[in-house]
Amino acid sequence: MPAEAARPTPPAPPASATPRQILLRRAAGYLELGELLVEPDAETPAHARRLLERSLDELRQLPEEVRRGGLASLLAGEALRAMGRWEEALDPLERAATADSERMQAWLGLGWCLKRLGRLSDAIRALDAGLTAAPRQPILLYNLACYHSLAGDVPAAIDHLTRAIAIDARFRDLTGRERDFDPIRSDPRFVAATHLIV
Question: CB 3.0–4.6 Å: which of 39, 82, 138, 159 could bond 167 by disulfide?
């Protein structure tokens, strides 16, 4: 993702935690460790892949109804996404987004996978749906700006970027090294949006 979102982590299980809670917690832990070793748009290292597979193994031990629930689906989708198995990640990420439409990690993951599958217009639609559910999330706005930039829609890219920066000025700092903005970097509207001090 052009900008990272906070990873969903189930609360630490109490001493009386159920086996399901423990499995979800362990799956989240393996996912978090595995993702620390993954570089965006690079091949997943073998040691990271092992941790991510372990996360999926933990999830496979859950009953079907829990495995298809929002949190387990999100964890599975994110593990598959981190391994570059983008097509496989779509179904669990869609389930997670449907289960909790305000869960921005699911929308971001969907956009990430769709973009890398060459389905940029679908990625934009996914993030638009996420933005409808969570309209003040600057990371969704920022990623939409990136995707619109790649699609050549400069007005939409500038609009989303300006809104993201208005909510959280730290997103301005990310634009300098974000390759998704290369197609519009010399556009005066982009220059104004990224250099304007609000």
Answer: 138
Quote the pLDDT of residue 7. 55
Stretches where the chain sits below pLDDT 50 are: 3, 198
Task: Give, as one character, the DSSP assignment of residue 183.
Answer: G
Residue 26 in tokens: 């362990």
Query: What are the residue boundaries of the structural domains of the chain, listed by start?
Result: 1-101
Helix, strand, coil fractions of the chain, as percent rounded to 5: 70, 0, 30
CATH fold group of domain 1-101: 1.25.40
pTM to 2 decimal places: 0.86
Q: Are 71 and 111 in contact (CB under 8 A)?
A: no
CA torsion 161-162-164-165 (nearest 10°) is: 120
Alpha carbons 194 and 72: distance in angstroms, whole number: 38
